[in-house]
């Protein structure tokens, strides 16, 4: 860092500013976390200089001995942690992982059945503004209006009617466990492949805090930077029979040189995720999310589906008459970072939205507990209801005290 400050004081200032922001505010974005200093060290290493197109033992460049070791460690750890038959650790992101799987399993224009974006699905699950909706025929399932849970009857009816080549489950804004066995049965009934997009909850699977999709899915994709607490990146797990197709769909089909610094950082995170301390963290993430959802319910914010089984909660703000957009802005002024989010059957436009989404991975990494979640719920409830700068200032001061008692990246 001293070298950076000397060479480029402007960027050094940005990094210090971002560190202060991450330390000084409450980080409640469901897909964010604080990667360990060891993960960050691997990311900022000389492996960033290395070209290593190909796979260990069969590269298109010389000098790959250390790159091979890093990738073999990452793959071996992913296989051991998730009990999968094959792993590809090269995808640059969750989106890149999904693109590779579609490329491996589908021809252009073939049908995918996945969760609709407004009900919690991801852009890569068939949205028209994404390759997945442009290059494939996307059919969407959703949740029931009554209990806001996935409508498995609808999934089955749509599968029988449209005969998709691929069914996708796992989402960005669905706080409940997904019934992978039910999806498997439906996929088998119509002869479809099943992909589970575990981008959000792979870190809970790794820590045994939720059921694993690996025994049910043909392919599982994940991000490594959310609950899993690694570097920004993607990961694909699959059965052996798909290994070659998946590897070729990542490289050379959709990517060039792997980011070996990120691959090494994934190896570090996967090692960390195998420890008892990590398993305790993963369970606490869920307990904290449940405590936070309950606390917010007491503040008049309605948890969609009535609560959560995971690291995230989706809150319907219509009961307090505040839009998601206003809530996000007020929280930001109060030092609470979160995002507005559409709720199922949302009457508001996506840029306004009737809800917010919160997640507990980062605050749990900081060491916060269920007692802290109760305090966060009070502060958040106060912030979203108020547009008064004095009140938001008071909340910001209380947030500052709370995070100071559980510092992210504590000074040694
Ligand atoms: N899949 C799901 C379900 C996600 O929630 C996300 C990201 O939020 C992704 C895929 C894409 O991950 P990335 O942002 O790394 O491309």
TrEMBL record:
InterPro entries: PyrdxlP-dep_Trfase (IPR015424), PyrdxlP-dep_Trfase_major (IPR015421), PyrdxlP-dep_Trfase_small (IPR015422), Ser_HO-MeTrfase (IPR001085), Ser_HO-MeTrfase-like (IPR049943), SHMT-like_dom (IPR039429). Keywords: Amino-acid biosynthesis, Cytoplasm, Methyltransferase, One-carbon metabolism, Pyridoxal phosphate, Transferase. Its cofactor is pyridoxal 5'-phosphate. Catalyzes the reversible interconversion of serine and glycine with tetrahydrofolate (THF) serving as the one-carbon carrier. This reaction serves as the major source of one-carbon groups required for the biosynthesis of purines, thymidylate, methionine, and other important biomolecules. Also exhibits THF-independent aldolase activity toward beta-hydroxyamino acids, producing glycine and aldehydes, via a retro-aldol mechanism. Thus, is able to catalyze the cleavage of L-allo-threonine. The gene is glyA. It comes from the Bacteria. Homodimer. The record marks 225 as: Plays an important role in substrate specificity. This is Serine hydroxymethyltransferase. (6S)-5,6,7,8-tetrahydrofolate binds at residues 117, 121-123, 240. It comes from Embleya scabrispora. The lineage of its organism: Bacteria, Bacillati, Actinomycetota, Actinomycetes, Kitasatosporales. Belongs to the SHMT family. Its EC number is 2.1.2.1. It holds the Pfam family SHMT. It catalyses: (6R)-5,10-methylene-5,6,7,8-tetrahydrofolate + glycine + H2O = (6S)-5,6,7,8-tetrahydrofolate + L-serine. The keyword Chloroplast does not apply. Gene3D superfamilies: Aspartate Aminotransferase, domain 1, Type I PLP-dependent aspartate aminotransferase-like (Major domain). GO terms for biological process: glycine biosynthetic process from serine; methylation; tetrahydrofolate interconversion. Residues 5-377 form the Serine hydroxymethyltransferase-like domain. Pathway: One-carbon metabolism; tetrahydrofolate interconversion; Amino-acid biosynthesis; glycine biosynthesis; glycine from L-serine: step 1/1. It is found in: Cytoplasm. NCBIfam families: PRK00011.1. One of its GO terms (molecular function) is protein homodimerization activity. One of its GO terms (cellular component) is cytosol. Its main location: cytoplasm.
């Amino acid at each position: 860092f001293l070298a950076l400050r000397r060479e480029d004081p402007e960027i050094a200032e940005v990094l210090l500013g971002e560190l202060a922001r991450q330390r000084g505010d409450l980080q409640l974005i469901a897909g964010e976390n604080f990667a360990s200093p060891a993960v960050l060290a691997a990311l900022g290493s000389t492996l960033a200089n290395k070209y290593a197109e190909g796979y260990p033992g069969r590269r298109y460049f010389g000098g790959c001995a250390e790159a091979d070791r890093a990738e073999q460690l990452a793959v071996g750890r992913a296989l051991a942690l998730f009990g999968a038959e094959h792993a590809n650790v090269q995808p640059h992101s969750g989106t890149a992982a999904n693109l590779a799987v579609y490329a491996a399993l589908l021809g252009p224009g073939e049908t995918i059945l996945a969760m609709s974006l407004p009900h919690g699905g991801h852009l890569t699950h068939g949205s028209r503004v994404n390759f997945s909706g442009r290059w494939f025929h996307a059919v969407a399932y959703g949740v029931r209006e009554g209990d806001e849970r996935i409508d498995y009857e609808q999934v089955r009816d749509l599968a029988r009617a449209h005969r998709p080549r691929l069914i996708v489950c796992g989402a960005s804004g669905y706080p409940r466990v997904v019934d992978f066995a039910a999806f498997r049965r439906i996929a088998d009934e119509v002869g479809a492949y099943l992909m589970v997009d575990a981008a959000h909850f792979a870190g809970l699977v790794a820590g045994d805090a939720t059921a694993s999709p690996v025994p049910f899915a043909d392919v599982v994709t994940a991000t490594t930077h959310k609950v899993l607490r690694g570097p920004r990146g993607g990961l694909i797990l699959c059965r052996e029979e798909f290994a070659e197709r998946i590897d070729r769909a990542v490289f050379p089909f959709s990517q060039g040189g792997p980011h070996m610094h990120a691959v090494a950082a994934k190896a570090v995170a996967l090692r960390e995720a195998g420890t008892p301390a990590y398993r305790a963290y993963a369970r606490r993430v869920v307990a904290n999310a449940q405590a936070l959802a309950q606390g917010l319910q007491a503040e008049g914010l309605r948890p969609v589906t009535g609560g959560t089984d995971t690291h995230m909660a989706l809150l319907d703000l219509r009961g307090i008459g505040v839009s998601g957009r206003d809530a996000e802005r007020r929280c930001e002024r109060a030092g609470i970072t979160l995002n507005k989010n559409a709720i199922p059957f949302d009457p508001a436009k996506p840029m306004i939205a009737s809800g917010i989404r919160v997640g507990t991975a980062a605050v749990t990494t900081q060491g916060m507990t269920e007692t802290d979640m109760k305090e966060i719920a009070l502060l958040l409830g106060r912030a979203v209801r108020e547009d008064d700068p004095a009140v938001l200032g008071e909340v910001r001061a209380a947030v500052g005290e709370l995070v100071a008692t559980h510092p992210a990246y504590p000074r040694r």
